[in-house]
Amino acid sequence: MKILVSYFSASGVTKKVALQLANLLRADLDEIRPIEKYSNEDLDWQNNHSRSSIEMKNENSRPQIAKPIYDLSAYDVLFIGYPIWWYVEPRIINTYLDSFNLEGKRIIPFATSGGSSIGGSVKHLRSLYKTAKIEDGILLNRGINETVIRKMIDGEK
Fold this sequence. Notes:
The chain is an alpha/beta fold. Helix content is 29%, strand content 17%. It is built from five helices and six strands. The protein has helices at 13-25, 51-57, 91-98, 119-128, 146-153; strands at residues 3-7, 28-31, 77-83, 106-112, 133-134, 138-139. Strands 1, 2, 3, 4, 5 and 6 form a six-stranded parallel β-sheet that branches. β1, α1 (13-25) and β2 form a beta-alpha-beta unit. The mean pLDDT is 92.
């Protein structure tokens, strides 16, 4: 089974988890990088005029990313990682996923969050990418639990 771990990390927290996950799964790793890096001011969710606030208020916002490195058609499973922003995935994740034909693709979301669950983002992803097989996903704030990850790969609940 060929696995790709793709992730977006604004502060480094999600990156750390993605690196651990890719290492555990012996998977390829793809960082989703914005063309313009997010500054601390851009990430200020309390400022209605910050870049992240403006993006998240607009469902159609698709921040530009550096060109994806990997062709998803070569992979059986895509783990997609991100921090939770406004209870869902950051819009840059949608930019990334919009770049590929996801029909029948098995996608396992993973996220980090200061207080939100992953459920809202999974529901949102399923509403946008109806032809993909988007699984329930997992919140990985406390690191990687190998047993849980192996069950996810095997399709167990």
